[in-house]
Amino acid sequence: MDVPLPLSGFDVSEIVRQKALLRDGGDRWLRSLPQLVSELEADWAIVVGAALSGGSESVVLAATTAEGVAAIVKLELPGAESFAARTRVLDAADGVGYARLLRSDEVRRVLLLERLGPPLSESGLPIAAQIEILCRMLQDAWQVQIPVALETGAAKARRLAAFIETTWEELGRPCSERAVEQALRFAGSRASAFDPQDSVVVHGDAHAANALRAAHEYKFVDLESFFAERAYDLGISMRDWSDALLAGDTLQLGRERCALLARLADVAPEPIWEWGFLERVSTGLLGLQVGAEWIGVPTLAVADLWAG
Known about the structure:
It contains eleven helices and eleven strands. It is α+β, with helices and mostly antiparallel strands and 308 residues long. It folds into two domains: 4-114, Phosphorylase Kinase, domain 1, CATH 3.30.200.20; 120-307, Alpha-Beta Complex (Aminoglycoside 3'-phosphotransferase, Chain: A, domain 2), CATH 3.90.1200. A hairpin with a 4-residue loop joins β6 (101-105) and β7.
C-alpha cells in the first residue's frame, strides 16, 4: 500500500508524487493542489473532504455536492493526452460499466464522479472469481462508442516498446535481456495485428483495484481509453497477481490463467498472452522507476520465468 506523503494539507501517495516529478510541470502541479481544491469548492458548490487511497495517476478526494450526493474529486496528473477522450467515454457510458460522471473540467484536468464502494481487489474472492467478474464488466465497457479519434492499439504497442527499451537501460537492466527481447517481439506482433474492424474502446487498465463496488455490481474507474483489440484489456489480468504465479509452476499457472480469460471472454489466447507479457515488463519497469519495488520486483520475476 502507498505511504501517504503530507503536502500542504493533502495526503499524496509516494507513487503519485514520484510520477508527478517525472513529468513537465509536475512539481508546480503538486504545489497548486490546495488552491485548486479551493477553487473547485467554489465553482462546483461542493465540500471536499479527506484524501482517498488507491489512485496512482491522480489525487482522489472525497466530496459532497450541494444536493448531498456523495462524490469524489479526481485531480489528474499533468501530461497525459487522453483526458478529453476518457471524459467522453465516461459521459457516453452514463454510469453503465463505469462510474457515473457528474462534472468535468478539461483545462484543470479534474473529474467529479459518483462515490463508489471498496475495490474488487479487497473482496476476498479467489483470483479466478475476480477474473470472472472483470470479464463480465468488460462486456459492458466494450459497448461504449465515442465519435472521436483515439490512440490505436498499434500506437500503444509501439509506445510500450519504446518505454521498455529506454527504461531497461536507464535502470541498469533489472530483468533479463531475454524477457525484454520477448516483450519487444510481442509489441511488434500486436502492432502488426491491429485491425480497426476488430477493435473496441478498451478500458486500458482493467484490474481489480480499478473495479469498485456499486449497489449490486462493480463499476470501472481510472480508465485510460484507447482503440484496440479486446485482448488488451484481458492482458491486464495476466500482468497482475504476481505472488500467486510465483507460488507454483509460474509458466503453467500463467497458461492456465490465460486459458481462463480466453474462455470467459471468447477471445483467442495468443494475443492475451502477448499483451499480458508486454504489460508485465513495462509495468515492472515503471514500478522500479517510481520507487515501487513491491510492484516492480515480483512483476519482472514472473516475466523472467515466462521468457525462459
